[in-house]
Amino acid sequence: MRALLPIGAFPRTPSRPAAGGRGFTLVELLITVAIFGIVATIAVPSFSETAARQRVRSLSMDLQTTLLKARSESLKRNGDVAVEPIVAGSWSDGWRIVDNRDPANPELVEIRQDVPNAVAITGPASIVYRSSGRAALAAQLEVKSATVGTVVRCVRTDLSGRPFAEDGPCA
Predict the structure, then answer these.
(1) Is residue 153 within 8 Å of 168, Cβ to Cβ?
(2) Residue 150: which of 165, 164, 168 has the closest Cα?
(3) Contacts from 157-164 at CB under 8 Å and sequence distance 24+?
(4) What's the Cα-to-Cα distance from 15 to each of 8, 18, 73, 124, 144, rounded to whole Å?
(5) Which long-range contacts (CB under 8 A, 24 or more apart) does 107-116 make?
(6) Contact in structure between 115 and 59 (CB atoms under 8 Å)
(7) Neighbours of 42 (CB within 10 A)
(8) Beta carbons of 81 and 70 less than 8 angstroms apart
(9) Which of 39, 82, 135, 163 can bridge 67 by disulfide, Cβ–Cβ 3.0-4.6 Å?
(10) Both ends of the chain: CA-CA distance in Å?
(11) What is the pLDDT tens value at each position of the chain, 171 positions in all?
């Protein structure tokens, strides 16, 4: 004989999981990929400008540091020290610090060759520091992104020899 159930009690039947709990439908996946593509398309130009700005800022700070070291070396060596491009007239190929106390046999102090191709540098033939640490002439180097034309920094030296960098083109 079967057992009687109280009123309102029903035997449990196994339930199936809801249709949405099994994963994404193809339509949902396509909509998500489309939205991600639109957001990525909007973000990429902004990211490339940020990357260019960082490359230019980093390289201008490296130039500033090199000029500070050259100034310090001129004081330490009590003679002329120059910062000049490795290839005459092309700062974009790298630069070096040279001790010019003996012009017939200049001594290489430091060299920097790993300049990114996406950055262009223009400036004088050389920047010379006297034994007093003062610059022979006030100079300016313009560091510019080759990919994003609006990203420019200027590295200047005044006659006291102190280098500094600022945003914007050299005037």
Answers:
(1) yes
(2) 168
(3) 157/67, 157/127, 159/134, 159/135, 160/133, 160/134, 160/135, 161/71, 161/129, 161/133, 161/134, 161/135, 162/71, 163/63, 163/64, 163/67, 163/68, 163/71, 164/64
(4) 19, 9, 83, 82, 67
(5) 109/69, 109/70, 109/73, 109/81, 110/66, 110/69, 111/86, 112/62, 112/66, 113/86, 115/59, 115/91, 116/55, 116/59
(6) yes
(7) 9
(8) yes
(9) 163
(10) 105
(11) 566 666 666 656 555 555 556 788 999 999 999 999 998 888 777 788 888 999 999 999 999 999 999 999 999 999 999 999 998 888 888 999 999 878 788 888 888 888 888 899 999 999 999 999 999 999 999 999 988 878 999 999 998 999 999 999 988
Strands 90-99, 107-112: parallel, antiparallel or unpaired by DSSP? antiparallel
- Burial tier of 68 (Cβ tally within 10 Å: 0-12, 13-18, 19+): middle
| Total-model pTM | 0.73
Structure tokens given for 139: 């100079």
Q: What is the largest CA-CA distance in the chain?
A: 119
Amino acid in the structure at residue 118: A
Closest residue by Cα to residue 87 from 64, 62, 60, 112: 112
Tokens read off for 23 = 């994963």
The amino acid sitting at 122 is T
